[in-house]
C-alpha cells in the first residue's frame, strides 16, 4: 500500500504535521483508489544544519546584494531563499 515520506525542516508544530498527514492521505487515497486507512505518511523533521542545497547548508546566512532590500522570511518559502 502507498507510503509517502516527507522531509522538512524541523520547527513545524504538531497541528501542521497533522494537517499535512491528513491532506496527503486524502490525495493519495483518491489518486491510488485505495482506502485512507492503508496510506502511510512518514514526516521527518530535519535540522537545517543537516540539510544542504547547492553546496551550502541551509543554516548558512545568505548575503543579500547591496542594491536589493531584504525580503522578510515569512514573505517567501524557505527553500526559495537558498542559492
TrEMBL record:
Region (Disordered): 53-83
Entries under InterPro entries matching the protein: 4-OT-like_dom, Tautomerase/MIF_sf
Pfam family, one: Tautomerase
The 4-oxalocrotonate tautomerase-like domain, residue ranges: 2-57
Top-level lineage group: Bacteria
Keywords carried by this UniProt record: Isomerase
One GO molecular-function entry: isomerase activity
Family affiliation: Belongs to the 4-oxalocrotonate tautomerase family.
Protein name: 4-oxalocrotonate tautomerase family enzyme
Annotated organism of origin: Streptomyces dioscori
Amino acid at each position: 500500500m502507498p507510503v509517502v515520506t516527507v522531509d522538512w525542516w524541523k520547527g513545524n508544530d504538531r497541528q501542521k504535521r497533522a494537517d499535512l498527514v491528513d491532506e496527503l492521505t486524502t490525495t493519495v487515497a483518491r489518486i491510488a483508489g485505495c482506502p485512507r486507512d492503508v496510506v502511510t505518511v512518514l514526516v521527518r523533521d530535519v535540522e537545517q544544519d543537516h540539510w544542504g542545497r547547492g553546496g551550502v547548508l541551509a543554516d548558512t546566512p545568505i548575503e543579500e546584494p547591496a542594491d536589493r532590500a531584504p525580503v522578510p522570511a515569512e514573505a517567501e518559502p524557505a527553500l526559495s531563499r537558498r542559492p
